[in-house]
Amino acid sequence: MSKQPHYMSIEVENISKTYGSQKALNDVSFKINKGEVVGFLGPNGAGKSTMMKILTTYIEATQGLAKVSHFDVKTDAINVQKRVGYLPEHNPLYLDMYVKEYLRFNASIYKVSKPRIEEVIELTGLSPEAHKKIGQLSKGYRQRVGLANAILHNPEVLILDEPTTGLDPNQLVDIRHLIKSLGKEKTVFLSTHIMQEVEVMCDRVIIINKGEIVADKKLQELRDENEQTVIVEFDYRVEDAFLLKLPHVKTVTNTYGFVYEITFSTVNDMRSYVFDFAHDNQLKILQLNQKNASLESLFRALTMEAN
Ligand code: ADP
Ligand code: MG
After folding, report:
1. pLDDT at 3 over 50
2. Which of 117, 148, 181, 287 could lock onto 233 through a cystine, CB 3.0 to 4.6 A?
3. Which ligand has its closest atom nearest to the C-alpha of 50?
4. Given this model, what pLDDT does residue 287 score?
5. Which ranges constitute the DSSP H helices of 202-258?
6. Whose CA is nearest to atom 22 of ligand 1?
């Protein structure tokens, strides 16, 4: 894949959206480079679908500027639509239509060639089910139909709104693989409320809460910045208050017996400090482990902070 530096697929500048008196998006800004796979993570009601509908020209923002492949969504909607493939949240499919019939129908709207229909069926793994009616398909295969439809016109940018919600574990793995492989050639902006999903599929995460961006980080950066947990077992009881005197300490939990989980807000390995603490207090250490707090807990912390 050729990646031109500074080529932006999505540019969002100070976008706000109000529904009546309800503020769904408040001064949202971010940029997505060509070729990136970015997860848009946030709890229900955070504003994810609203942002995606603005980017796909389905609704207009109340304020601000949004561009896809350098075309303004407000003034150049047609050019945006040509370059964007969209899988809406509640993918509206015609259950009585056959898979091929449905794709042909949409292809005619987009003026897409016949061989391309066969190509997207192949690409999305739909071949074994392509002769069936959409209503006969499992949820996983219906999502494939939605994805096939989204890539029919070979768009540069894919906007996928909760593409894995409602799938069973096997379907989930398949769809994630499919999205990952599509992401090799396209810019992908996908929403989810599941942190783990971002870990598996994305290069970067933008976290939104109550209409505001609360984090925008490369996955690697997030891992590095994460707080750490040290799990230590002493040979005797220790008052939490003593452990709370350790540098960078955030919380102390006596999980069972003489086992303590201590969280620190630093990337420095704190095990040596715990070791020195034990030595200074004539305690023996029976076990000592360090783990990075999961991205999940970071997500929770970020989305709770803004409450
Ligand atoms: P998400 O996709 O993150 O769950 P949405 O973008 O769907 O969030 O919704 C953001 C907020 O805007 C929510 O509080 C929701 O109730 C509200 N909202 C969404 N669509 C509408 C609408 N058409 N009319 C009024 N309020 C809406
Ligand atoms: Mg939504």
Report:
1. no
2. 287
3. 1
4. 95
5. 219-225, 240-243
6. 19
